[in-house]
From TrEMBL:
Protein name (record): Hsp20/alpha crystallin family protein
CDD domains noted in UniProt: ACD_sHsps-like (cd06464)
Sequence ranges assigned to domain SHSP in this UniProt record: 32-142
Organism (species): Mycolicibacterium austroafricanum
InterPro entries reported for this sequence: A-crystallin/Hsp20_dom, HSP20-like_chaperone, Small_HSP
Pfam family, one: HSP20
């Protein structure tokens, strides 16, 4: 008979650091926040268009909002700065916001239109029929 003592790992009276973050979303879901603040976005596909709405209150859309598209990724950047003065006192508030969204297949990057009304940025992307049909790949059995 072999008497081998199995040593149990010692647990500290203090919880592990990872236990503090157990209820939070994974780090992968937080990625859009790095490099700026998160812009809340709602999107939908309807009537042959990809429609996106972003909440960006308090900006001048002509000066403070930049929308770019490259390799099927639509990027929205906005910068807000505000200065309030009253009774000889001034307050500054500012921040930058960035959000990148992968466009659906068939997106017509040349036909993208954007508008801004009452703090909501609306972006409309026309969708074309997919030019390439789906391909089936044969699976070979290993010998």
């Amino acid at each position: 008979m072999n008497n081998v003592a199995v040593q149990q790992p010692r647990r500290s009276a203090w919880p592990e650091v990872a236990d503090f973050f157990a209820g939070f979303p994974s780090w992968a879901n937080l990625r859009p926040m790095f490099g700026g603040h998160l812009i809340k976005v709602e999107d939908d596909i309807k009537d042959g268009k990809y429609e996106l709405q972003a909440e960006i209150p308090g900006v001048d859309p002509e000066k403070d909002v930049d929308i770019t598209v490259r390799d099927g990724v639509l990027t929205i950047k906005a910068e807000r700065s505000e200065k309030k003065e009253s009774n000889g006192r001034s307050e500054f508030s500012y921040g930058s916001f960035t959000r990148a969204v992968t466009l659906p297949a068939g997106a017509d990057e040349d036909g993208i239109k954007a508008s801004y009304d009452k703090g909501i940025l609306s972006v409309s992307v026309p969708l074309k029929e997919s030019e390439a049909p789906e391909k089936h790949i044969a699976v070979e059995a290993a010998n």
